[in-house]
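YM 10:42: Ubiquitin carboxyl-terminal hydrolase sequence, as discussed on the call
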Amino acid sequence: MELLRSNLSRVQIPEPTHRIYKHECCISFDTPRSEGGLFVDMNSFLAFGKDYVSWNYEKTGNPVYLHIKQTTKSIPEDRPLKKPTLLAIGVDGGFDNNEPEYEESYSIVILPDFVSLPFPSVELPEKVRIAVDTVVNAVGAERKEQVAAWTAEKKLVSEHALTLQQIKSGIVIPPSGWKCAKCDKTENLWLNLTDGMILCGRKNWDGTGGNNHAVEHYKETAYPLAVKLGTITADLEAADVYSYPEDDSVLDPLLAEHLAHFGIDFSSMQKTEMTTAERELDQNTNFDWNRIQESGKELVPVFGPGYTGLVNLGNSCYLAATMQIVFSTHSFISRYFSHQSLKMAFEMAPADPTLDLNMQLTKLGHGLLSGKYSIPATQKDATTGDARQEGIPPRMFKNVIAASHAEFSSMRQQDALEFFLHLVGKVERASNTTPDLDPSRSFKFGIEEKILCPSGKVGYNKREDCILSLNIPLHEATNKDELEAFNKQKAGKGLEENDMSSDEIVRPRVPLEACLANFASSEAIDDYYSSALKGRTTAIKTTGLTSFPDYLVLHMRKFVMEAGWVPKKLDVYIDVPDVIDISHMRSKGLQPGEELLPDGVPEEVIESAQPVANEEIVAQLVSMGFSQLHCQKAAINTSNAGVEEAMNWLLSHMDDPDIDAPISHQTSDVDQSSLDALLSFGFAEDVARKALKASGGDIEKATDWIFNNPNASVSDMDVSSSNSAQTPAQSGLPDGGGKYKLFGIVSHMGTSVHCGHYVAHILKEGRWVIFNDDKVGISTDPPKDMGYVYFFQRLD
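YM 10:58: structure's back
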């Protein structure tokens, strides 16, 4: 005890603003359920596993830790399954999700000798007791960040908060023991901030919740704001305030005053209820999607190094599928596993390693590749009876890689390809000071576009990229006769494909070679400005690669726009061989006898290429009551995609400070990080700026815009007039032969890249393995013809 007293100065009592980690080690995936439990630093509130806590002591000198250990409660084997009374999972009366229950024990541990003191104990200094109680009762930072991400949009300040009139009724609200004024409900209670009425919340779809008394009270009185009792703590921003007229959770900057009106001292209140966002998260992450995926094939689970599953955090399968394949490449394995230990990454990390990309990539690499966490779980799969693994949750990695990105930091489904591009860009920028160690370079290659003008002169446009995005030429289908017969049969019976089973539908089969040939084929560029002819003309563009990467990533453009800009997913099979040879796609550069186009494009030509608002879109928006200027801006910033897209842009940009400024074609108003990402792909700066403006700042849409607007990349910019570009070796790009072997597939199920489910198949040790979130097993039939993104490894 004296040892503890001598170190009291190193113990902090957490404030409401502190991030407290108590569910997962910040440099490994150890948890309180791990053999050694978890150690929470009582000064920084970072958590460490048994094998790593000494490193933190050596680095910080912090000696006092709260040790948390969870052990499984024993459950009788003959315990009958409860009959569900509600259509829900993980709630009372719902389906039994068979999750084990745990008992939690605590102790105070003092390093370096791991001296242990029991907790709770009246003999402990009061400061230690208060600090530990605060940690134990706090919502962990892991949970807080997950809840924050699940909330799709940031809460806004209510327009009613600053003008709220409170009735002087003399009501004083007690700190506990609340009950609905109109029924017997004692949970999910809301305090109306105008008159002090305590009423129950809405009735949920499954019969849980309240009896709608709070919302009915609003309809009767129009009193706008209510706060959920049980969510009020010293951290007032975390309280659940709801605005009925705005129909949303909101912020009340005067909440302290509004509570004081009813005698509530928020500083002494404890959290006893979930907020709306927490409840929504709880319902969504408890639902196991894999239990409703009945593929009909027996999955043989596989365990060991390189076979670790990733827990779905809620619509995070796009991240899981991508990272499983990325960490199957030698470049990422070497950078974040073989040649960088966890201790090395931790020693280089800042004070908070949870915010360091290098640390979290190393943590994820060791988690996936060490085999430490790829072991059969104690509980078998409830639906199949098979051994399963629990997998590791990539929460901290997701928080770091998605930082400041509005979409990836949400809990919405995302495009796996867009995430891959985002990952490559972040890793490359993080490796600026050590480019030789940059693993993302293994995906990079050079692209060269040759422009042949009718004058006979040529221009060359060079850039770098890390994906080949391929259109699918349906006219090259190899089963045209079967397709024609199927379509005739379907038309004769008056059937839609929705009325037919999957086995009955005949889909086009297009060879991958046809997609690659289409990419490399000549293409006419209309309205091209020729600096040789000093006028507009039609030129011929051909595209090739100046280098071949270590890993070739092929993106199949299965999502296309139909008439009216309606997105559609092509229902098509791509016949992908195990080995491809793209040697014929190498660009040869300036050839003997070729004459380069003169330098320079007149300013008026560049000005004439600036985007102009579509008059029909503008007219429709103006008829809805929007101003002409706002409508023009909306059309331009959505590339004239359509009325709905322009409307969405308008609604989300009405509060922009420059919304009323005249339209300017200056190029200084794009996000610098997005611009840097496009520049890292090798696009010219003026083209990248134009693409970002045309796509509303979306990197993936900007990339597509450049690919779909060749005029922008060649006719509206100064085409290279010399052949002095660096060779692949000089520019640091990998290069080699053109033969590649297929080793990874990201497949997508669903009608849009922003919904559905992603799965990865990876060739490991001579066999295909499926990675479906935390399920890892031998694949009996890898869907080589149904991939969305294909990963190839160069053979030489």
